[in-house]
Write a structure and sequence with these properties.
Largest sheet: 7 strands, mixed
Distance between the termini: 57 Å
Number of strands: 7
Strand content: 15-25%
Structural class: alpha+beta
Order of helices and strands: EHEEEEHHEEHHHH
Length: 208
C-alpha cells in the first residue's frame, strides 16, 4: 500500500454514530472486503482493531466503525460547526488524527527550529512556517513571540569578549528576525535606523 495522507470532514451524524465516512475517491487506500483494520489515534502508539466496511453503492462511502470513545474527546465546538477534520496517513496501519493536532505539531516544530536557527535566513523561514501553521500573519506571530520572550525569556544570548571598539553582544538570529519584522530595524524610541555594510539593519540589545 502506498504511503499517502488526506483530509476528510466528519459530519455531526457520523460523529454521533461513532464512525468515520471515507469518500469513494480514497477507497483504494483501504481493503476491498469487510473486516478489521489496525488504527492508531493522533500521536498514540497503541494499535487498535476497528471494523472497516468498503465502499457500498447504496451508502456511497466507506466506513470505519468504533470511534465513539475517540470522538468523545473532541472539542464540541468542532462538532457544532459540522466541520470536524480527520487526517489519515496510511501505510499498513492507519493513523487517524485531528487536523488541529497535526497543525499543533507543525507549529511546535517550526517554533523549535526558529529558536535553534543559526542564521537570520533560517529563522525567517521558520517564522513564516509558524505563521502559516497558525494561519496568521507573520507580524502578528512576531508580536506574540516577543510577548512570550518577555514573560519567559528562553533565548540563550551569546556573550563575547569585548576586544575591539564596537564589538558587542551577539544577537540570536530568532530575536533579530522578530525585531526586524516588528520594528523594521528602527529604534523603538526615535524611529532612527541605519544599515551595516551587509545591508542589514543594526541591532543592539542592552544587557539585562
Amino acid at each position: 500500500m502506498a504511503n499517502s495522507s488526506f483530509t476528510i470532514y466528519a459530519t455531526d451524524s457520523r460523529i454521533s454514530k461513532g464512525l468515520l465516512a471515507i469518500p469513494r475517491r480514497f477507497s483504494s487506500e483501504f481493503p476491498t472486503i469487510k473486516g478489521k483494520i489496525l488504527v492508531v489515534f493522533d500521536d498514540a502508539t497503541r494499535v487498535e482493531p476497528k471494523i472497516y466496511v468498503p465502499y457500498d453503492p447504496k451508502i456511497k462511502e466507506c466506513r470505519v466503525f468504533g470511534l465513539s470513545r475517540w470522538f468523545s474527546g473532541v472539542d464540541r465546538r468542532w462538532r457544532c460547526d459540522n466541520n470536524y477534520r480527520g487526517r489519515i496517513p496510511t501505510k499498513g496501519i492507519y493513523r487517524i488524527a485531528l487536523d488541529r493536532f497535526i497543525e499543533q505539531r507543525r507549529s511546535a516544530e517550526a517554533r523549535r527550529q526558529l529558536y535553534t536557527a543559526n542564521s537570520p535566513e533560517i529563522a525567517g523561514e521558520q517564522l513564516r512556517r509558524l505563521a502559516e501553521s497558525k494561519r496568521e500573519k507573520v507580524q502578528e506571530i512576531a508580536f506574540q513571540e516577543i510577548a512570550l520572550i518577555a514573560q519567559r525569556p528562553f533565548l540563550k544570548r551569546k556573550r563575547v569578549m569585548v576586544l575591539q571598539r564596537g564589538q558587542a553582544e551577539a544577537v540570536p538570529p530568532a530575536l533579530r528576525v522578530l525585531l526586524e519584522v516588528i520594528h523594521h530595524g528602527k529604534c523603538q524610541i526615535c524611529d532612527f535606523t541605519f544599515k551595516k555594510r551587509d545591508g542589514n539593519p543594526y541591532f543592539e540589545i542592552p544587557s539585562s
